[in-house]
Every structure is written in structure tokens, then in C-alpha cells.
Amino acid sequence: MRDRRRVDELSIEELEQVLLLRKREAREKRLRRYRRTGRAIDAEITGEAFQPKSKVRTRVQRALGAGLLVVEWGAVIGVLVVGWFFFQRWRDLNTQAQQEIAAVSSSIPTVEPTPIIGAMVLPSGHTPPTSPEGAQPNFEQELPAHLRPIVAAAPPVVLPTPTPAPEHAVRVVIPSIDVDAPIVQGDDWEQLSKGVGQHIGTANPGKVGNVVLSAHNDIFGEIFRHLDKLNPGDEIQVYTASDMFTYQITGSDVVPPTAVEVMDPTRNPTITLISCYPYLIDTERIVVFGELVDNS
């Protein structure tokens, strides 16, 4: 049996233990009652107020959760829809712009570029001095018929001023065939009557490119009469106002008057000499090629 004692017989420590035990028993009792009946329990006993969760409250919470989920999915779908419409609008604008550009382009007339009239025939061409009409330009015989209207319609070449620039060629010397002649700018009939002519637009002596010089072989001093006697290794000396450039012959060829490609620019400093050929017949051209080897 329990040892029953009166309250006044208990010490303070024993009284505190009894009170603590009674409180614990009371709290457990109320918790059991709450589980059985669903009625609230005092906060001073449990440390917190328990409220029974009714079925209505649970349904409301579930409904709110479902509503929030619907709102979230709706926002995602809205963003996707806005992005799709933006993409469609961007594509439509590009398509419309391309159509407008194509319409404008088709309405603009095609402009044919103005053809550049280059050399149709090599310089120094003429009829032989022994022909009945004497020496004169020979374009009608040398130039193909379909090119004659183009040459006739071409504007005259504007020649440089008589005073040459410092870098222009002014003199050519070929020791092996006793040539020592002045050089003028231009190689038409009038210019070649004054000496050796440099084709307009070709390189200056010593520079990268092709220095093209021509002269007659049987009129106006017969300056280039003996080009056919030149051999590889022979020298050509070309003077400017302040320098002298030495070229060495690399080869020669006989070509038709229309072989204008021999005057094309080159990637190295080169020289090309041109004259009519054969002597007193003048139906073709003799062309001599050389490369720069020295300057002083």
C-alpha cells in the first residue's frame, strides 16, 4: 500500500514533485479526452491550443491549393502563348519586308555597265612604206570587222602634258642593236612619229608591273628595226629624269596584231618591246620580253 502522509508532513521538494506529477496526469487525461471527443484543450496544459480540423476546413484548403496550381499553369500557358504570337509577328514582318524589297528591286531597271574600251590591237601598226598609198595607220586591215565600230565610237585618248613626270620613262638604250631613243607618253600614230612610245597606263620604270614600249621598224627612224636580233640575256636600259633601270631580255615572240594580252600587267617589274613585223610587210608584231635586274 502506498504510504499516505498528510500535506503538512511533506517537504517542499516532495510537494513540488507531487504538483508536477498531478499536472502531468491532468494533461494526459485531457489529451485522451480530446482524442475521444475532439474538444479543445487548454493551452496552459498542453503548451499550445489544439483546434479540431473539420472536414469543411480541409476541403477549403484543398480547393485553394488546386486553385493556385491552376493559376500557375495558366501563367505558364500565357507566357507560351505570348511568345508564340511574338514569333509569328516577327516572322510575318520579315516576310513582308522581303516581299517589299523584292518588289522594289523588280521595279528598278537593270543598268548595263558602260564597257571599258581597252586596246583592240597592238600599237605601231601601219601599211608598209612601199605600198601604193604609203605608210599610214592600218586599223581597217588589222582590226576585226566586229570591233571597228567600237574603236570608231571610242573617245580619243587624252595624252599627258608634254612635260613628263619625274617617274616617267624618257629614254631607252639597247646596246646590242645600237638603239638610243627618246620615250614619249602614248603610242598612237602621232606620238610614234616622235620616238618610242610608252603605252598609257602601263607601269613606270623600276616599278612592279609591265613597262610597254613600242616603235616603228621601217618608218620614223626605224628605231625598232632589229628587235628580232635580240637574244635572252641582252640588256635594255630605261631612263627616267633621275634614275636608270636595267632590264634583261628573257625571250621574244611573233604574234598577230590582236594579241593585246602581251601588254597585261605583271606581278614583277617587267618590260615589253613591240614593233611591226616582218620588215616592210608589217602584217604581224614582234614582241620582246624582259625583267628588271638592276638600277643605278
Can you tag this structure with a few keywords?
alpha+beta, 8 strands, rod-shaped, eight-stranded mixed barrel, 6 helices, Sortase, Chain: A
List the helices and strands and how they pair.
Layout: H1 12-37, H2 43-46, H3 55-107, H4 139-142, H5 148-153, E1 171-174, E2 179-185, H6 189-192, E3 196-198, E4 209-214, E5 235-239, E6 244-255, E7 269-277, E8 284-295
Parallel strand pairs: 2-3, 4-7
Antiparallel strand pairs: 1-2, 1-5, 3-4, 5-6, 6-8, 7-8
Q: Which homologous superfamily in CATH is the superfamily of one domain?
A: Sortase
Morphology? rod-shaped
Instruction: List the total number of helices.
Output: 6
Number of strands: 8
The whole-number mean of residue pLDDT values reads 82
Span of the ends, CA to CA: 142 Å
* CATH-assigned fold name of one domain: Sortase, Chain: A
Radius of gyration, in Å, reads 55 Å
Helix share bin: 25-40%
The amount of beta strand, in percent, is: 15-25%
**Sheet bearing the most strands, described?**
8 strands, mixed, barrel
Question: What is the topology, as strand order, of the major beta sheet?
Answer: 1-2-3-4-7-8-6-5
Task: Describe the protein in words.
The protein is an alpha+beta fold and 296 residues long. Among the domains are: 7-46; 165-295, Sortase (Sortase, Chain: A), CATH 2.40.260.10. 33% of the residues lie in helices and 20% in strands. It is built from six helices and eight strands. It has helices spanning 12-37, 43-46, 55-107, 139-142, 148-153, 189-192; strands spanning 171-174, 179-185, 196-198, 209-214, 235-239, 244-255, 269-277, 284-295. The protein has an eight-stranded mixed barrel with strand order 1-2-3-4-7-8-6-5.
